[in-house]
Amino acid sequence: MQGESPSLNRQTSRIDSSAGPVSASVLKHLKKAEILLMCPPANPSTSRTAWWLCIESDANILYDELNSPVCDWKLAVSAPLKLENLLPCDIKYMIFEKSRDGDPILRDRGTACSGSVINITSVDTRKQIYMSCSEQDGWRSEGMILISNPLGEDQPNGFIFIHQQSNRHLNLSLERDFGASNAASRTVRIFVPYLVSNRASLPLSYCVVEIESSKGSDSEIPWLSKSVKAAKHASSRPVHSKHSNFHGTHRVVQCLEVLETNGGASVMFSLQSQLNRTGFLPFSPRTSDVGLLSPRLGIAVCASHSKSFQEGISFRDLEDNERIVVKAKGENDSYFKLIVFLTMSSQRTKVINFQPHTLFVNQLGQQLFLRQCDLDCFELLLPNDPPKISMDGYEWSSPFTVESEGVSHIIFQSKTHENSLLLKVEIQNGTTESRFLAIFRHASFISPYRIENHSLRFSVCIRQVESSDKSWQSLPPGYAAPFAWEDLGRIHKLEIAVETDCKSAVATYDIDQCTRYSPIVINNTADAHIFVKIVQEDSTKVVKVADWVSDNIPMEIVPYENVKKLGLQDHPLDLELSDHQEIEDQMHIGVDFIELGLSLVDNTPEEILYTSMQNFYLSYSTGLGSGISRLKLRIESLQVDNNLPLTPMPVLLRSQFPVDPSSFMFKCTITSQTVHSSKCLYPYIGVQVPNAHNNALVVNLHEPIIWRLQQMLQHLNLERFTASQTTDVSVDPVIHIGLLNTSEIRFKVSLAMTPSQRPRGALGFWASLMTALGNTDDLQIRIAPRVHEDICMRQSALITSCLSSIRKDILSHPLLLLSGVDILGNASSALDHISKSIAALSMDKKFIEGRQRQDTKASVEGFGDGVREGAEALGKGLLRGVTGILTKPLEGARVSGMEGFMQGVGKGILGAAAQPVSGVLDLLSKTTEGANAMKAKIAAAITSEGVLMRRRLPRVIGADKILHSYDEFKAQGQILLQLAEGSSMFGPVDIFKIRGKFATTDAYEDHFSLPEGKMLIITHCRVILLQHPTSNIKPKKTDLMKDPCSVLWDVTWENLGTIELARGKQDSLSQPASRLILHLRTAAPEAHRTDMKDSVHVIKCDSKSNQAVIIYSAIQQALSRYGPDRPGPSQLRTRSIVKRPYSGPNPDSMAFKHLKSQHA
Fold this sequence. Notes:
- Helix content is 19%, strand content 35%.
- The protein has 1160 residues and is an alpha+beta fold.
- Strands 41, 42, 43, 44, 45, 46, 47, 48, 49, 50 and 51 form an 11-stranded mixed sheet that branches. It has a 6-stranded mixed sheet with strand order 9-6-15-14-13-11, with no helix packed on it.
- A hairpin with a 5-residue loop joins strand 22 and strand 23 (335-345).
- Helix 6 (767-773) crosses helix 9 (823-841) and helix 9 (823-841) packs antiparallel against helix 11 (863-942).
- It comes from Ceratopteris richardii.
- One of its GO terms (biological process) is protein targeting to vacuole.
- Residues 952-1063 form the Intermembrane lipid transfer protein VPS13-like C-terminal domain.
């Protein structure tokens, strides 16, 4: 809103009780001010309550073309009073206005949800405003509270909230924001000083308590004592004693106030009443000076059914924003181990959060029993039951601690002592739900450590030090087993015992250090020694145990999954050395390319795809130990170009944004292991792409490229390579993957349907539906990240599972799929399809062929191109429809007499009705296509995304079908030929030009740049002279991707008579010929010329060089190879036109027809 008044002095409308209400604001008298506007009721008989609004007018100074100041006004309309509820619960409120008699008048009532802002427009802020509120759990305010006083006096900072059942008092706080004037909008916020949040999903009770003061806490020195600081460092180390006190907890002296939970997850409380009653120092909930709060005031927690408040936490300790471990006592000396920490809500309420210390997750697929080590009661932990150790048929395991991050193994002994079970516990740190996350899984061969027994005679047993006897794991000769610490809180050392007939030899090793230890002497025998060596393989420490016999003899190690107790007698193992011994020598092969390009040429032949990769790295390593090999692939940048001519989507695949040079676009790691079974073992498979939230893979599909790829695959007949020539039964191998890790992948898919270039009968019933709804624009597809361990299934089942997972990811977000539908593109395709069907009803063969040639042209690039091509199609439809009424009967009578005349009359009537309708639909289709192209350009400009360009221009493959090395010069000439615009009606000045006139009919041979901005192109069918569109105005370098040249004339080989070299009028006799004269065969009935008025064409060449001679030689060479005077019929195949599948059913090539007739 703009006005002419430059007066911008701030004026505040201070409206008092004696002033009359303002009922209107005149726009032409605007000034910077805040006014209170009253809206009287429309029908005073039904309602006497008026609406009040606060209007703030402000302006910015702008300057017009004459540099005169103009005010740009901004009007902000808001409610005079706003009530913001920052409590964790909904409240019911009533707003009262004090009348002149002093009695309160009810103006508004309602419910304010938690975190919401209520606009109150029924009160006059010039008067005193009162409020009363209540809560559904029994809380009510004590009387009415003054929330707004125009005089600004006696406004309380809070009020009392009383619980009706327990009579507990709660001090709620008020915060006011009244603006700069009495007419400004006023905001009143209600919040509670303290809030207890139960994030443990457990029934808990809370109590405000007085606790014992720690040493030095009541002095004037900083309240955090040295003992507490020392306890901080001690808490980070494993606690070995179960009777040690937790940091931050103190014994409770007395309970001051029990907080009712009422079954909710949040409990409100305040400390003002306790401070007044106990004589503690006063404390403001919003102050940052924690020294004002007494360290003897705290909060205690227990299980809701026990009411045993034994240990409390000081509020001063919570103010330090550290996590404190506390025990919530229950019955029978049980307790819940919790973490307490303090956060801020809306910068006003201090939230005391209780969350579990450890969250146990069962991913075993069977039920698990969990209990405290010194109690008999237990809880059932079902599979995938997040927050809640024995299993059915097994005894209780040894106790373990959860105080640090890592991976541990737990051994279960069966009740019948026949077998054992090994489980893995992965302890994660820093999760949002708890302090630690303990995940129970089945043990896999991927673990922090691996123990390999290379001995030929002795079995070894392993366990962590200070473990029980049932923790021993037996490892026969030639076997390996994964290993992890049974308890992360104990000493990290490994005990290795050798099983012999008499007493076993036991030694302790630090397996975190890669070294070779002194041998162990067995039974005091000089020839019986055990050697222990620790090596690093990737992220796994490998402990190799060998005797003096096998230390120098390589042997194959077999994964051993059974866990046996020391001294348990099993059947003897017949162990033999494998024929394929383990190779210790490593071999690494790496291939690194700064830039790598792959060109895909089909059977036409034509280059249809070009793949460009930057910093391509491929490596293969073998001999990494235990038969492990690794394959790595890393690509920094990848782009796939669509090299079909006249495609609107030249880039098929690329990254949405440029990838950081230090990062990568695609990385894949596959680790395989050779085993003696039918399984294919892959310990690790990982696929990673850049961060999907910031980058996505852009896929642009133009329908013709799909059919070209399908045609090429059908021609290759890949089944001949996979077809079995034997009668052996095919085997579906078992795939075992230790760890599968794939990152999130996002795609943005754009699909452009082109029905005119679709093979006949393709898609069947779905053809019409795909034409109408198949176009998409930035369709978002998300493949979720996946991390799976211990995958073991048949290859066919694995492939089916992967495809099913991808299909679920695509279909799980239907709104994203619908948002990618291209409405304008689908409308254009549908109109084009209907127009094609109506054109077929006219039974006019020439009209149908002309329309098919029109469809093979390049797509429109803007709204102007769409209107121009649509108008051309409409003009042709009207012209053919009107003239067909007269020409069709005459054509029919000339062929079949009276019967043909009557048929021609019918065709003429049908054409007069169908062809104009088809032209109108083509006009709508092309206009819509142009609007869609303009929308895409505007969207690219807004998002600062440049036009997608090919890495290089498409390769040139001539009519001889010989694949030569890439030539940039010839590639530029081929683009000039494909983009050339030819006139259709009115010669070179025709505005209805055919874009890409020779793109699908001619094969490029050579081109030459001529003076005056002209270009000569030689194809296997003709000679073409082009004119750059900007050369007549201002010469500039040709942009091959944007600026098409205009066709001045073209001469086919059948219409070319002779070629003559000549000099120009100003050329001297010493200079070479600078003119090339083409004499035409004007009498030839099959002559095909574009607006040819004379029988000769003159080509002006560079007079300072022998360019005319070079062009003469090139034309003679092409004429001798592809002209009508060919050497013989055997050479026809090298001169025939290259038939393109996307060029339409009837290409316009008189040269092809002429050669075919002569060959016949």
